[in-house]
Amino acid sequence: MVLVNGIFTDSVKANDRGLMYGDGVFRTLRVERGVPRYWDRHYLKLNSDCAALGITCPSAALLENELNLAAEKTPDCVAKIVVTRGPGERGFLPEAAAEPTRIILTSPMPDRVKHDEIRAYLCKLRLSRQPALAGIKHLNRLENILARMEWRDPDIAEGILLDAEGNVIEGTMSSLFLYRERGLVAPDLSFCGVGGVQRERVLEYAREKGIPVEIKPFGIDFLKQADEVFLVNSVIGLWQIVSLENASWQKGAFCEALRNWLQ
Amino acid sequence: MVLVNGIFTDSVKANDRGLMYGDGVFRTLRVERGVPRYWDRHYLKLNSDCAALGITCPSAALLENELNLAAEKTPDCVAKIVVTRGPGERGFLPEAAAEPTRIILTSPMPDRVKHDEIRAYLCKLRLSRQPALAGIKHLNRLENILARMEWRDPDIAEGILLDAEGNVIEGTMSSLFLYRERGLVAPDLSFCGVGGVQRERVLEYAREKGIPVEIKPFGIDFLKQADEVFLVNSVIGLWQIVSLENASWQKGAFCEALRNWLQ
Q1: Are residues A103 and A233 both part of a single domain?
Q2: What's the pLDDT score for residue B34?
Q3: Are residues A87 and A48 in the same domain?
């Protein structure tokens, strides 16, 4: 199902700035029994991402209505919400009167959601550092695509991305965390990477349970020394990494408890 | 006029990877009396940009036919050619069978083409360094948009972009050169920036005239000491910068000769 500006259609104007320049943002979330999970948080993030780019975010009520409409026939699905700056004339400067485009796409829940432990791959591509875009889930995703094209082995579920300076940042489509010495460590996303709702929820879990949290830059060797390494996003939930290059991990108690809490 | 995959329509599939991820490349060129200027060179660049992203580039003949069709009613126009990886299911990994999408958009020649000397602005946004994407005219253009949104003064025609390390790279929509000590200096585009057909033609001019060329990193102070500073692209031709921050220049003989040669 595709809904564009509230209408069931699978087409978007060719001069939409989302297409011309990747000028927009998105969210991906699960809809369960017709209810978009953690909608309030997703909307908050969508809204702040829009603000960072100077895009007027459509209202939460409007988007939620359209989400419900799109998911009417498939009450359990993955929904992707895209907000672009809208159609425009040629040129990078947005027109003051630009009307944002709202796109809702639903798709079936993927099989891979069923895994709990996964093998990961260390991507060769290094993320560039751009503080003006760091943390934003925007439509400029060529780095993720090039990284994802590095492996075809279906037994590898996700690729780990470092930045140009060797800091571990995230998975190609997920947020990364370490558990070590009874504390949680999350990468610093000041220079690159994508912030996510599940990332926030993991941090909330740590606060709730009194688990110390450090958000800081770290390299791949530090990651390999962790007791547990895991990835989260709104579709997969939590994946514990059990194999990455020459490192391997057993199924961990922290990941299991956190996974149960997240669900 | 908009032509999508050879058909007059202004709509593109909502799940096109060009829209979802900025997964594609483009060229902008002038069509004069129905003839796309420097088409062979534009196609070569389009083709190599596609190859760099693993996109199968449509044939030159097919695109040229569609360009002619799009420009039939407006023999003097600006044509933009976009090639995306095509529609796809959710997920960064491209499907092997992805059929690229071809989009041709024509628009009237802008007024600003008539200027020869311009005022420029030094953008605050710094380009990130990503060797995997450097030089490619791809659809991930949020940096250019954020940079272009920094000024609204209509008397400023272009913004100059530095990279994260302070190297001068380009204009937001143009290639930059210096003329100093009877030699041409061009920024090194190994880490960021966009390669262009007019950039290649300027380098060709220098070779033809026996003018020494250096392609190297340089900062804003080096730029300000140049005898002439100029910008080129396929639509504007050549713009000499006469004012940038506290620096100013007189109309220069090198720029004038080069402009005539380019035309």
Answers
A1: no
A2: 92
A3: yes
For CA atoms A89, A93, A97, A101, give the dihedral sign. positive
How many CA atoms, within 13 angstroms, populate the side-chain half-sphere of residue A159? 24
- Among the partner residues A11, A107, A129, nearest to B89 by beta-carbon distance: A107
Q: What are phi and psi of A261, to 5 degrees?
A: -65, -40
Which of B109, B131, B154 is where one domain is finished? B109
- A129 neighbors A166 (Cβ within 8 angstroms): no
Phi, psi of A239 (to 5 degrees): -115, 120
DSSP character at residue A114: G
Rounded Cα distance between B70 and B1, Å, is 6
State in Å, rounded, how far the first CA of chain A is from the last one.
26
Q: Give the closest-approach CA distance of B181 to chain A in angstroms.
A: 34
Query: In terms of pTM, does the model score above 0.90?
Result: yes
Interface contact flag, B145 A19, Cβ < 8 Å: no
Spell out the alpha helix ranges (H) of chain B: 17-21, 39-53, 60-70, 142-148, 197-209, 220-224, 253-262
In terms of domains, do A252 and A123 share one? yes
**CB within 8 Å: B92 and A145:** yes
Interface test mutation site (partner A, options B16, B128, B149, max chain A beta carbons within 10 A)? B128
Q: Is the pLDDT of residue B110 over 90?
A: no
Backbone angles phi, psi at B262, to 5 degrees: -65, -35
Cα A115 to chain centroid, rounded: 18
Dihedral, CA of residue A180, residue A185, residue A186 and residue A191, to nearest 10: -120
Give B247-262 pLDDT, tens digit per residue: 999 999 999 999 999 9
Mark whether B127 and B242 lie in a shared domain.
yes
Q: Which residue type does B218 have?
A: F
The DSSP code sequence of A38-67 is THHHHHHHHHHHHHHHT--PPPHHHHHHHH
Show the beta-strand stretches assigned E in B141-253.
Answer: 156-163, 168-171, 175-180, 183-186, 213-215, 228-233, 237-244, 247-248
Query: A121-139 burial string, b = 16+ CB within 10 Å, else e?
Result: bbbebbbbbbeebbbbbbb
Identify the domain containing residue A6 by its residue range: 2-108
CB pairs under 8 A between A and B: 173
CB atoms within 10 A of CB B1: 16
Q: What are B183-193's pLDDT values in tens digits?
A: 999 999 999 99
Mean predicted confidence (pLDDT) in B82-92: 94
Which chain A residues are Cβ-neighbours of B94 within 8 angstroms?
Answer: 145, 149
